[in-house]
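pls design
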């Protein structure tokens, strides 16, 4: 009985081994005869994983004009372990690099990984690639990976678009989407809308023979994934207006921002000095960036929202609006002016006296606005000077000053409307009053604004007390999907009071400091400003909207160290308004003067 049991077990074990043997034989047959990919691998073939980089989304203006597109370039990749006995002299000649450069690149690649491909030479042009493509088989371990780079058909909008650069290791550590050699938006729209513009990467797995030649897709591309192009952006920018503004500002330091008041859409957004955005594309980017960063006129600074300036007389209507809101000012209130002998703030204009608020705006009377400010701080009904000031500050900030507006561009500065705590720190609590801070009455002192905030202020005046957060992207893709809803902000000033301030601005353009630059058939409402600058000559400012009824454009112009607002900022703004509303310029003498004048 025991022998039978032993024999049965022996047969079972033998059967198991036979089954396993048959399975192995079948598998070997499949590998060696049926599945050709294993045969290829047996003949010294390797798999190459090639990232498929998506083209970034295109960028258009509000009228469908192409502003930013892509052109093909090629990155040369290397897998160090596969590099064997190549003709380095010929290789260096093809790439136009030195032997020392070759060794440095190889050392960096080995440090990254001997087994994984890494970047050897980036952004080879399609012309150069066409020349070296047929010789790549002579250089095992190297292969080319297609990429795209940004190009700009017109050399405008550099600060608006921003630029794309190689991702840093710090960002790679934070975001697993990015790998070494990837590109990312560094500034401007490219940064703000990176997740939308970048698209989705794909992957192709290639079979490569011993001669570094591709022999086909692994498993007929079964495991490949296609790259998905980024979404296109349609901006609110008017390309023609943007280009015209940059021409007018050539040779001048400063900024122009124009907004459509009814929507908050930015029509023009420029900082001067500017630069051709194509300079920061491709293999020349590092060299050009260094040159631009060392330029004494600082063309890389985005003055439109990272430059801060005293608003000067453009701020006077703000104090008037607070006075009207607080019941401390109306059309019947008049203050006298003694011109240059006025104290504590003298007047720079000769005009009638006494005068009401509309004429005071028209004539830009400093003593009038000092009296209004003093009344707000001293006679307010909020429990003393400090509380009156806090109320004044809250109402000023409700017009978009002293804080970031929340635009869809990065690196916006807040400007400054000083807090009561700050004055407590400077002068001591209870030891300051309207006289101490009198410079605020005429937009000087500690007040700082950005050109974006000044243009937004003009839009709020046009809307009689409200604004939609300024933004530069109108919609995504051809179907017109909105990227985000930008909220409407209502100021703390009753809309009825804006009619008084707007009438004063209309009189500035028709009877006051801006009357010399009236536009045929278009009524402009504006305010000039000459802001004292502790670091040099006065800044020239102008803010306006037009037409007076149903405004289509609000604009702010700041020209640094240029003197009177009526001399420089005003004509630039009036020309841009005329260009946008009428489509042509009927004042060629003014245009020629602005185009040909260089102020630095």
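designed seq:
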């Amino acid at each position: 009985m025991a022998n039978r049991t032993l024999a049965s077990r022996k047969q079972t074990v033998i059967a198991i081994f036979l089954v396993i043997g048959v399975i192995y034989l079948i598998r070997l047959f499949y590998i060696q005869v049926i599945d050709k990919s294993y045969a290829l691998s047996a003949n010294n073939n390797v798999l190459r994983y090639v990232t498929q980089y998506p083209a970034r989304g295109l960028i258009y203006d509000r009228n469908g004009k192409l502003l930013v597109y892509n052109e093909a370039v090629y990155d040369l990749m290397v897998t160090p372990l596969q590099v064997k006995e190549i003709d380095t002299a010929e290789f260096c000649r093809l790439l136009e690099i030195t032997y020392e450069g070759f060794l440095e690149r190889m050392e960096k690649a080995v440090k990254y990984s001997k087994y994984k491909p890494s970047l050897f030479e980036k952004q080879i042009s399609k012309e150069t690639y066409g020349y070296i493509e047929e010789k790549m088989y002579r250089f095992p371990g190297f292969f080319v990976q297609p990429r795209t780079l940004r190009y700009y058909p017109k050399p405008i909008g550099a600060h608006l678009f921003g630029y794309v650069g190689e991702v840093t290791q710090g960002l790679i550590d934070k975001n697993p989407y990015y790998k070494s050699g990837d590109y990312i938006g560094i500034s401007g729209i490219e940064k703000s809308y990176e997740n939308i513009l970048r698209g989705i990467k794909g992957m192709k797995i290639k079979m490569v023979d011993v001669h570094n030649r591709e022999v086909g897709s692994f498993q007929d591309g079964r495991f490949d994934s296609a790259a998905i192009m980024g979404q296109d952006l349609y901006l609110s920018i008017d390309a023609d207006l943007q280009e015209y503004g940059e021409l007018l500002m050539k040779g001048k330091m400063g900024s122009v921002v124009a907004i459509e008041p009814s929507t908050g859409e930015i029509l023009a957004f420029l900082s001067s000095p500017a630069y051709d955005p194509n300079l920061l594309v491709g293999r020349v980017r590092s060299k050009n960036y260094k040159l631009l960063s060392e330029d004494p006129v600082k063309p890389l600074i985005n003055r439109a929202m990272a430059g801060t300036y005293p608003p000067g007389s453009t701020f006077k209507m703000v104090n008037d609006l607070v006075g009207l809101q607080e019941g401390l000012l109306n059309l019947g209130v008049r203050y006298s002016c003694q011109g240059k002998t006025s104290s504590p703030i003298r007047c720079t204009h000769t005009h009638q006296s006494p005068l009401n608020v509309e004429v005071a705006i028209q004539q830009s009377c400093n003593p009038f606005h000092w009296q209004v400010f003093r009344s707000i701080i001293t006679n307010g009904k909020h429990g003393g000077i400090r509380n009156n000031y806090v109320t004044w500050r809250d109402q000023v900030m409700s017009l978009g000053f002293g804080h970031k507006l929340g635009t869809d561009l990065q690196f916006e500065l807040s400007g400054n409307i000083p807090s009561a705590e700050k004055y407590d720190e400077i002068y001591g609590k209870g030891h300051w009053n309207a006289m101490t801070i009198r410079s605020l009455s005429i937009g000087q002192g500690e007040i700082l604004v950005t050109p974006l905030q000044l243009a937004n202020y003009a839009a709020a005046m046009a809307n009689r007390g409200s604004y939609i957060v300024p933004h530069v992207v109108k919609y995504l893709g051809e179907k017109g999907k909105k990227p985000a809803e930008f909220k409407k902000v209502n100021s703390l000033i009753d809309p009825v009071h804006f009619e008084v301030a707007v009438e004063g601005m209309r009189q500035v353009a028709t009877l006051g400091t801006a009357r010399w630059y009236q536009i045929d058939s278009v009524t402009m409402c504006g305010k000039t400003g000459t802001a004292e600058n502790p670091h040099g000559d006065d800044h020239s400012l102008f803010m306006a909207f037009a037409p007076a009824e149903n405004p289509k454009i609000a604009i702010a112009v700041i020209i640094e160290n240029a003197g009177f607002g009526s001399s420089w900022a005003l004509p630039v703004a009036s020309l841009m308004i005329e260009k946008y509303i009428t489509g042509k310029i009927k004042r060629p003498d003014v245009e020629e003067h602005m185009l040909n004048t260089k102020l630095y």
